């Protein structure tokens, strides 16, 4: 049994195993994960409750900014944690001026009301506790963002496109995106990285969190035909990781997204355990932009991730 499996045994569930297996079986065909027109309509049975042509959209997660833009609509208010630099450049350029709604984690209801949105797009988990407050301000669409995988992100985009009455525009955006990802997959399958394992992790001054096979980054990687070093039995998307756990996973490639100038990685670098990692020995520890790989789950981010992987596969 894989050593990593033993270390993470407490996180494993039988249902997670089945879930991950299903994902893995279908990972070669991203389009197979898309919702049918009937499924989209069933997700929003109250479509007439939403404005036909919203002009003041409040996006309470970065992923919803991507969804609105893919539908040809520009959000006018965004929960950006008070830092516009957290938006990826593609979003900043397309959105232009907007009203900051502050924290995604602790939304300020007064700020949202002051923005006078005619449609709010909120996370169905994180923002459910303020559901009544939001719906008093404007019609509110609740879809998944936090903890979503790549396929769920595309499904959420489909639903957002439907609520914005831009189904055709969204379908075109998704098809263009899938073609780019198919091209990237073909490029990667012709590289030596296709026979290696690839792991993304976020690093801060508090620790490392590997993004597992069911995470957004993990499913983007698998959709491109690349392998994870982590057994797919774990359904945990974000895995707190000690140096010992990292060594147990021992990826061929370790891609890290930095959240602080000084992180746990700097503390580990002198350790013999760290120096024994395959990725370290082969100079395959690579820093990537966490805005794309973690924060702004979206079609432009998945495309950037694919291009990052292609660039490093040619090293």
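Q: What amino acid sequence fits the structure above?
A:
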């Amino acid at each position: 049994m894989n050593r990593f499996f033993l270390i993470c045994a407490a996180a494993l569930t039988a249902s997670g195993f089945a879930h991950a297996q299903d994902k893995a079986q279908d990972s070669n065909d991203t389009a197979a994960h898309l919702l049918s027109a009937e499924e989209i309509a069933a997700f929003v049975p109250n479509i007439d409750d939403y404005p036909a042509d919203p002009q003041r959209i409040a996006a309470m997660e970065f992923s919803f900014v991507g969804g609105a833009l893919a539908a040809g609509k520009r959000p006018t208010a965004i929960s950006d944690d008070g830092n516009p630099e957290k938006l990826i450049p593609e979003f900043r350029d397309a959105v232009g001026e907007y009203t900051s709604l502050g924290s995604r984690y602790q939304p300020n209801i007064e700020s949202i009301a002051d923005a006078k949105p005619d449609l709010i797009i909120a996370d169905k988990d994180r923002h459910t506790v303020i559901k009544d407050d939001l719906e008093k301000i404007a019609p509110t669409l609740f879809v998944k963002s936090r903890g979503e995988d790549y396929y769920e992100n595309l499904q959420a985009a489909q639903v957002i496109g439907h609520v914005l009455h831009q189904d055709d525009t969204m379908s075109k955006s998704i098809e263009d995106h899938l073609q780019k990802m198919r091209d990237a997959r073909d490029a990667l399958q012709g590289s030596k990285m296709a026979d290696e394992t690839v792991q993304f992790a976020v690093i801060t001054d508090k620790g490392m969190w590997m993004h597992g096979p069911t995470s957004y980054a993990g499913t983007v990687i698998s959709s491109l035909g690349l392998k994870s070093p982590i057994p797919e039995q774990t359904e945990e998307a974000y895995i707190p990781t000690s140096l010992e756990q990292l060594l147990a996973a021992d990826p061929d490639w370790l891609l890290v997204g930095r959240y602080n100038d000084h992180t746990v990685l700097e503390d580990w670098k002198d350790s013999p355990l760290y120096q024994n990692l395959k990725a370290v020995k082969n100079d395959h520890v690579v820093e990537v932009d966490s805005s794309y790989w973690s924060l702004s789950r979206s079609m432009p981010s998945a495309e950037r991730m694919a291009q990052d992987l292609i660039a490093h596969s040619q090293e």
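Q: And what stands out in the fold?
A: The mean pLDDT is 90.
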